[in-house]
Structures are given as C-alpha cells and as structure tokens.
C-alpha cells in the first residue's frame, strides 16, 4: 500500500474509533464526514445537551495535502497527531495547521 493510501486508512480508523466512544444513550452524536476524493476528513459533534443547549461543532478536521497530513483543527484532549505518529506516520509528514506557520518551527512536526 502506498504512503498516501496508508495515511487515508490511518485517519479514517482513528476518526471511526473516536466516533464510537460516545454512549448510545448520549444525546450528543458524533458524525463522520469523509471526502475521500478531496482528502478531507472530519469528526462532528451534534445534538442537544439538557434539551436546551444546542451542540454542534467540528471536533477534528484533517486533510491530506500533497504528501502530508494537515491537522486543521483538533478540539480533543488526545491529539490525533500523536495517535497518527503512534501508528507509524513520521512527525515530519504531519502539519499542525492550527498553529501559525511561524510557531510550527518549534514543534516536532512539519512546518508545511
């Protein structure tokens, strides 16, 4: 399997695993949005908390651009970038796009 297809598989597995963490009784659902042709992957939370507070938002957004994984947003405690590294993705192939280009140089991950 080539590198990009492997990255696609890792991203999708990670997001599917995280979506399944919610209890079936939780009024907030996790939905997956995979644009496999454009290489855009999202985990979205939506529902109602206490029947009066609307919950809607993107928890994780990851793109594949060129030959790198771009983490556009990660609103979780356990960083998806760390999970991808644990699966075997070199940190030099992951861009933390939610950091400014200037700050990226100070991380173990790619600048861009």
UniProtKB/TrEMBL annotation:
It comes from the Bacteria. It holds the Pfam family XisI. This is XisI protein. The lineage of its organism: Bacteria, Bacillati, Cyanobacteriota, Cyanophyceae, Pseudanabaenales.
């Amino acid at each position: 399997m080539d590198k990009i297809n492997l990255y696609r598989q890792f991203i999708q597995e990670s997001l599917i695993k995280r979506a399944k963490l919610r209890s079936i009784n939780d009024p907030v659902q996790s939905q997956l949005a995979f644009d496999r042709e454009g290489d855009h992957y999202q985990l979205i939370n939506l529902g109602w908390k206490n029947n009066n507070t609307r919950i809607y938002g993107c928890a994780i957004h990851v793109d594949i651009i060129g030959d790198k994984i771009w983490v556009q947003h990660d609103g979780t405690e356990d960083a998806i970038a760390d999970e991808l590294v644990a699966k075997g993705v070199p940190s030099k192939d992951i861009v933390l796009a939610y950091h400014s280009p200037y700050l990226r140089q100070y991380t173990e991950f790619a600048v861009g």
